[in-house]
Amino acid sequence: MLVLRSGLSKALASRTLAPQVCSSFATGPRQYDGTFYEFRTYYLKPSNMNAFMENLKKNIHLRTSYSELVGFWSVEFGGRMNKVFHIWKYDNFAHRAEVRKALANCKEWQEQSIIPNLARIDKQETEITYLIPWSKLEKPPKEVHVLWWNESADSRAAGRHKSHEDPRVVAAVRESVSYLVSQQNMLLIPASFSPLK
Fold first, then answer.
1. Contact status, residue 196 vs residue 88, Cβ threshold 8 Å
2. Could you tell me which residue ranges the NIPSNAP domain spans (predicted)?
3. 3-state secondary structure of 9
4. Strands (E), the chain
């Protein structure tokens, strides 16, 4: 089980974006760190969810031959249903550009996955993210992984309740909440081909 929490700060919310833009771009000092992770979200037509996942399961090897798939999940609950979330690792922006160009020229990938799946996607979003300096990405000891690790949804609820009783957590939330405009949590279920479960 993966729980993803995303938030929007007032600083970001105050920017005016073109109506069709569904992507954030990395700025600030972290953009010079090289390695980054692209979070991609596809909103699928409900009647096409199973066909999309089956097609990708059969053809994901074509895509992963160009760059590293960190994980691939479907949304169980938290926001819109019939949504998939996946994370790709890139060495830098030049690496991402090379991969995108190579995929556009890969006839097998285009014919077997992109063309059949394109009509199944309603909307697509992408975000560029970096690891926190003191963290590292590694496979967990169990086949369950979360960005905020929990054994189950019930253990997550119990942990949140306990943390709300911790004065340090309460103080940290009070200090940061004034910067938060919105927040969303999602429970994600890993695809069978997802490296992180």
1. no
2. 37-136, 143-195
3. strand
4. 2-9, 23-24, 36-44, 68-77, 83-90, 121-129, 180-190
Percent of the chain with pLDDT over 90: 43
Number of continuous H segments (helices) and E segments (strands) in the chain: 7, 7
Instruction: List the CATH code of the domain at 31-132+183-196.
Output: 3.30.70.100
Encoding tokens for residue 124? 């697509």
190: its two tokens: 């890993």
pLDDT above 70 for 108: yes
DSSP string, 58-78: HHHHHHHTTSEEEEEEEEEES
Q: What DSSP state is assigned to residue 31?
A: G
Could you tell me if 170 and 70 are in contact, meaning their C-beta atoms sit under 8 angstroms apart?
Answer: no
1 vs 137: which has the higher pLDDT: 137
Read off the pTM.
0.71
Report the mean per-residue pLDDT for the chain: 79
